[in-house]
Write the structure tokens for this entry.
Amino acid sequence: MSTITLHDTHNHDDHAHGHHKETFLTKYVFSQDHKMIAKQFLITGIIMAVIAMGLSILFRLQLAWPDKSFPILETFLGRWAEGGRIRPDFYLALVTIHGTIMVFFVLTAGLSGTFSNLLIPLQIGARDMASPFLNMLSYWFFFTACVIMMSSFFIQTGPASAGWTVYPPLSALPKAIDGSGLGMTLWLVSMICFVASSLMGGINYVSTVLNMRTKGMDLWKMPLTIWAFFLTAILGILSFPVLVAGVVLLIFDRSFGTSFYLSDIVIGTQVLPNEGGSPILWQHLFWFLGHPEVYIVIMPALGISSEVISINARKPIFGYHAMIYSLIGITVLSFIVWGHHMFVTGMNPLLGGVFMITTLIIAVPSAVKTFNYLATLWRGNIRFTPAMLFAIGLVSFFISGGLTGIFLGNASLDINLHDTYFVVAHFHLVMGSAAIFGMLAGVYHWYPKMFGRMMNAKLGYLHFWVTFICAYLVFFPLHFLGLDGVPRRYYAFTEFEFMQKWVTVNIFVTWSAIIAALAQVAFLFNFFYSIFKGKKAPQNPWEANTLEWTTPVEHLHGNWPGEIPTVYRWPYDYSKPGADADFIPQTVPFSQTMSSNMPHDFEGNTEAERIQNDWNLKQQSLEKSKQD
Amino acid sequence: MEVQRTTFKKMSLRKFISNKTMAVLAVLLTAFANTSAFAQEAAAGAAATAAAKPVDMEPIYKSAIFYALLFLLLCLFIAIVGKALRVYELTREAQDKPMGINWNAINGSLFALFLIVGLYGVYWEYTVHGNMILPEAASEHGKKIDNMFNITLIITTIVFVLTHIFLFTFSYFYKHSGKRKAYYYPHNNTLEKIWTFIPALVLTVLVLMGFLTWRSIFYKVEDPNNKPINIEITSQQFAWTIRYAGKDGVVGRKNFKLITGLNGLGVDFKDKNAMDDLLADEMVIPVNKPVKLILTSKDVLHSFYMPNFRVQLNTVPGMASFFEFTPTITTAEMQVKTGDPSFKYLFYCSKICGSGHYNMQKTVRVVSQEEYNAWIAKQPTYLTNDLRKQFGLPLVADPAAPAATAAEPAAKDTAAVKTNQLALKK
């Protein structure tokens, strides 16, 4: 690789950007510009997140005050909350839809969809995605999925209520629970649209990363965000189709009388004709997606936090290669750990043993990432922007939630913890809170790139601190409910004497959740207000190295007005000794930074090393003559 | 010219500030005036009605509008604080003084504070909520699980505390300062090796322990002298049915197609082993004797969860699953240990199964062998006269009183061995 080069005139992307007329429809609705699509994903994701958060507050109210009536609930929910009290089957619907929206629509589409779309072209130096049209379709399939999912709140039998994992037979038999009627059909249709969307997105991300990098941007010069999005997209492409396979079989079981998942079932005294199926098959298919899915959720968040932490600590990310290898390790391993969700399903115990081994191995790359974050912070010069606060919060949640995973990944311990509140606490910390914090870090950090304006930092601090503290107050105590053997998805704790002691904890948790939810108002206000009234963003507000900050603040289709910049160095040259500024953008060639170049920068290029040596000698003789 | 412009700028800034300050002051004043006016009114009102009846605030606390207004008030307060901060910063700027508030220092210190308060919070949680969790395991394998849990807890707690100390102290000590440059330290392969190897080693130990325990739970070698008691549990929305094997020690076959209102489990009485099966309303088991649970489901998935014994396994329609365990502490002993005379063992459902999921429980009593023998002798057979009619079997005088048929435990055991062998041959 030539490292000391002049700008060459090589030009492969000179398609003229004559300002062809853009209508409102082509600019804001059916846009094919990756930046606009990213914003569409983000805002849809935020709306879905607010809805799902609202649902969670509803069922938290029920858990805290199972005997109280809230007349306002009846006003809004009608017969789902007759007399101001949520009905048990609606409680399950709330839990189900909360989980589905959060996992799929917010943390998969809202996170990957937003930041992969925004950052992949901008950070690798491409004018747009490989297939802008497919990209647009991806958003609209996602939007359709959202609409279908939400429409299930407006039908007679209510939304799907078999839990977000929709285990059959419960999800297959409308007689077993009302939500398994039309609501479940809508769930399945919505999920198919969603998977179509995420496949189109994923294929686009992978092909863009592989084919459209600018000159000089080899794989080992890509920012960690891009690595994370790239590997996430691969995970999605390989695992989501399996969910569709499962979903199609479930549709057959529900509507066409097949017996893939059903066997030996009697509802009341009605004997169903199904024979020979196995409910466990669904669990295998579901978790073959489902477990990679949790990494689909967390890996982009880890990528974003790597970038944000490095920029704001003004230090290179520690162990760039180790970070990438650990991401690759997580990607590969995540395909062979799905069975740890099924230790107590009655599947062959031998499988349990195998899955326990693979599951605990995956903790190693996760640990490596954590230690690398800590090492990056060490002796940094940390700027606490709101994005940085959220990234640090992510590391904290990732540690807390990751460690409880060691309990659950151990098949023997899982016997007593499975399906209890311990699980709820675990995944809400490691997947829920950590991933949401990654997403929020990304929003605060790249907001100037998205909207050309700055968000208010002080509101960001308020938002962070209240959310961070309340998230711990909500989820930390829940571990202990699990250790007391309180199962999840219980409508009320009133029927068990031993659960009475947890009612006060439930009230405390609910209040914390309400405060956390109210804190989001600070974010929402900040977000939407700043779109119109925020301070105008400077070119490079965080003094970052990556390519997206070389594009003009005002968006244009094609990203760079002239030639796409060439990349000469890795993205993490922060506080390099010998350099004047504490950052050196990727577009600065080594020839301009002779005073700060290091031997390993040249990757064995002897010519470049020779030039550097000559320069060093000249420098030394100059200094000597000065001293003389 | 330049000077003029700056002074002009400053003046307008001053004007702006004074406007803002005035506005803030006005807002504060009105807010204060309003509240005091309200207070006075309320006081007057209260004084007037105090004699008649106290003001009933209950409906007000219940109304959503009350809380919405409270929240709006809070927003207003935050907005005022925000404006005040802005004004302060602008004044500093106008006076050409360094940046008003060092947010890096504030956030760094907040992280340090969070660390201290958080660590205390964790300690409080461990000691207070940690004391509210399940009592010690009441089964043989449960003790192993508890041991392993404790080891894992110690290891993870150490890691948890150390990493958080690093995370937040680094945040505190290395907060931004203009005088300093960060230390350029891109990688160190030795460090990477260390923190790959050590977690790998610790996890290997945990995996090995977990794997061996897991094997010991699910791969049991049957001791012919200490045969487990077979109990079949059938789940349905939202109830459990408990069927004991009877004196032959074998639970009879069943077939879901035979399920009727009368024969709720669909027991097939063509299988002779089914004839003496007993129906029980609670699970009573003798202490220190292995129990083998045969778990089945009639409709959807449920999960048989008996946390005191560290037992959990899903019940799956169309597939029987098995869990063998040995209870070690009787209910009476546990009542003494927990200091709770009303303590009882339970099993309940832990897999989402429908609207009654939250109330699907049965009592478990662990008793001495003698008590067990006395109890089991009183249990009715599953086979009632009505069922005999249905299957064309000869009627008996009083099938609900099987006391006469209950044999000596020793005799029963040998009988059980025989029938077991027969069953195996079949």
